[in-house]
Design brief:
The protein is mostly beta strands. It has one domain (48-351): Glycosyl hydrolase domain, family 43 (Tachylectin-2, Chain A). It has helices at 19-42, 283-286, and strands spanning 45-46, 63-70, 73-79, 89-97, 104-113, 123-132, 137-145, 159-165, 173-178, 188-192, 198-204, 208-214, 221-228, 233-240, 243-249, 260-264, 275-276, 288-296, 301-309, 319-324, 326-328, 331-333, 340-343, 348-351. Strands 2-3-4-5 form a four-stranded antiparallel β-sheet, with no helix packed on it. Strand 11 and strand 12 form a beta hairpin. The N and C termini lie far apart (50 Å). It binds (2R,3S,4R,5S)-2-(hydroxymethyl)piperidine-3,4,5-triol.
C-alpha cells in the first residue's frame, strides 16, 4: 500500500479518530453473524404452502405422499407430477432427509406405463411404502384406477396396486392390482402402529373408511379391523398416549374441505364422533390430509399433519401444508399455518411468531 501523505484520510469521508470505533462495530457485527449462522443452520424452517425446493432446487414432487423412517433417515414417497414427463407414464418420486426440512431427490422408484391395460386415463395415486423385516422387502401400495368396461372416467376400478423392491429407494417391481378384501378402494393411507403392525386405510365408496391389516409378506390385505361408516378420503391414523386418532377429508375432488378427526381406544373402535381439525371456514387452510407423522424425540413427541394443497390445473405446483398438531387427551387441532422448525432429535417443534 503506498504511504499516506499528510492530510490524506484512510477512508475518505471518515475522520481517522472514528476508525477504532467503527472497527469495533464491524467486529461485533461479524461475531453476531457468526453466532446466528449455526443457529439458522440447526433450525431449518418448514414453510407451509410455499415452493419446497429439493437438493436440486426443484419443487418436491411427492404429492399425496407418505413417509417411512429407515435407519435414522426419512424417506418421502409421493406422486411425481413434474411438468414435461411422458404423459403415458405415471411416476412416483422418492426423497430422503435427516431433518424433514431438507430433501434430497433419490429416485423415481416407479415410472410405469399402463401395467394392466387400464387405458389412457389410468390413475396411480397416493403411494405408501412399508418395510417387511421378515422378507427384507420394501412394499409399496398405491391407488390404481381406470375406467371399467363401458366407462370412460379414470376412477371406476377402485383398486390398490402393489410393487416391491430390495432397497428403499430402488426401482420397484409392479406386481398386480386388486380390490382389498373385495371392497372398492380409492384414497389409501398408511399406518404403522407402535408395535410395528402395518395397516392399510382405504376409502370404500359405498360403505366408508376401512382399516385393515396386511398379510405376513405384506403383499396382500388380510383382515379388516374396522369400518367407520363415513365417507372420508385422505385417511390417516396416529397412535398417541394410548389413543388412536383418525383423520380424513370429505369427498370434494381436488377442492379442500373441513377435514375431521375422531378418537378410539382401540383401532377396532368404537370411534368418537368426528370433529373439525381447524376452523371449518378455512377448509383445512386449503389442504387435504395425507398422513399423520409421529416424531418421538428425547424431550417431546410431535405429530405432523401432512396435507396437500392441490392445484388441479397446475398439478406440478401443488404445495404441501405440514404443521405440528396440537394433540393430546382426545383433542386434535391444526394451528394456523406459519413457518416452523423441528429438532428431530429432541422432538421439539417451534412455530415462528
Ligand atoms: C381426491 C383424492 O383425495 C385425490 O387423491 C384425488 O383422487 C382426487 N380426489 C381426484 O379428484
Amino acid at each position: 500500500m503506498p504511504p499516506r501523505t499528510h492530510g490524506q484520510r484512510l477512508f475518505p469521508g471518515v475522520m481517522d479518530e472514528n476508525i477504532p470505533a467503527m472497527r469495533k462495530i464491524a467486529w461485533n457485527a461479524a461475531i453476531l453473524l457468526l453466532l446466528a449462522v449455526p443457529l439458522f443452520a440447526e433450525t431449518p424452517l418448514i414453510r407451509p404452502g410455499e415452493v419446497w425446493p429439493d437438493n436440486r432446487g426443484q419443487h418436491v414432487q411427492a404429492h399425496g405422499g407418505g413417509i417411512i423412517l429407515v435407519h435414522g433417515t426419512y424417506y418421502w414417497f409421493g406422486e411425481d407430477r413434474s411438468q414435461g414427463q411422458d404423459r403415458s407414464k405415471r411416476y412416483v418420486a422418492c426423497y430422503s432427509s435427516k431433518d424433514l426440512a431438507h430433501w434430497t431427490f433419490r429416485n423415481q422408484p416407479i415410472k410405469l406405463s399402463d401395467p394392466e391395460n387400464f387405458g389412457p386415463t389410468w390413475v396411480l395415486e397416493r403411494p405408501k411404502v412399508f418395510y417387511n423385516a421378515k422378507t427384507k422387502k420394501y412394499v409399496m401400495y398405491m391407488h390404481i384406477d381406470g375406467p371399467s368396461p363401458g366407462h370412460t372416467g379414470g376412477y371406476d376400478l377402485a383398486r390398490v396396486g402393489v410393487a416391491v423392491s430390495d432397497t428403499v429407494d430402488g426401482d420397484y417391481r409392479y406386481l398386480r392390482s386388486f380390490r382389498p378384501l373385495d371392497h372398492q378402494s380409492r384414497d389409501i393411507g398408511q399406518f404403522i402402529d407402535d408395535d410395528g403392525t402395518p395397516y392399510l386405510i382405504f376409502e370404500d365408496r359405498p360403505f366408508g373408511f376401512r382399516i385393515a391389516t396386511l398379510s405376513g409378506d405384506y403383499l396382500n390385505v388380510e383382515k379388516e379391523v374396522c369400518l367407520i361408516p363415513l365417507h372420508l378420503e385422505g385417511g390417516a391414523v396416529v397412535h398417541l398416549d394410548g389413543l388412536y386418532y383418525a383423520i380424513g377429508s370429505a369427498l370434494t375432488g381436488w377442492n379442500p374441505n373441513p377435514n375431521k378427526y375422531a378418537t378410539a381406544k382401540s383401532l377396532a373402535g368404537p370411534w368418537s364422533e368426528f370433529k373439525d381439525i381447524a376452523p371449518p371456514e378455512t377448509k383445512t387452510y386449503g389442504s387435504q390430509s395425507t398422513m399423520l407423522l409421529k416424531i418421538v424425540g428425547k424431550k417431546a413427541t410431535t405429530v405432523i399433519f401432512m396435507g396437500d394443497i392441490w392445484k388441479p390445473r397446475t398439478q406440478w405446483d401443488s404445495r404441501y401444508l405440514w404443521m405440528p398438531l396440537e394433540i393430546g387427551n382426545g383433542k386434535l387441532w391444526l394451528p394456523e399455518p406459519k413457518p416452523w422448525s423441528l429438532d428431530v432429535k429432541s422432538g421439539v417443534a417451534t412455530i415462528l411468531k
